[in-house]
Amino acid sequence: MLASTPILFVVQMVLLPLYLWLFIGEEMIGVAHAKPFLEAFLLLIVVPLLVAVMTQIYAKKSELGEKVLGVTAWFPAPFMTFVLIVVVASQIGKVYSDISIIVRVIRYMFCF
What we know:
6 helices; mainly alpha
């Protein structure tokens, strides 16, 4: 999952204009602006990717870098867990308020 995350982010960012056009239509051109998407892409994908690459290069050349990399190797699991908890916590109210719709959709999915 962690290895595919950068690839999935890039694919999502590339396909986002198409998704917006499909869901919003021609109005998307007047509503959505490219600058926030480019800023998000740079700050959330490019910068962390560059930091990761530089860290890997430094770790190969330095004993201290190798130790730091070894200590931080376990970080992704708790951080991914934290992200999952935050996402679930942010949406649980919506799930609770729309539970009847969700149940109908689930029933529809399995009653084909």
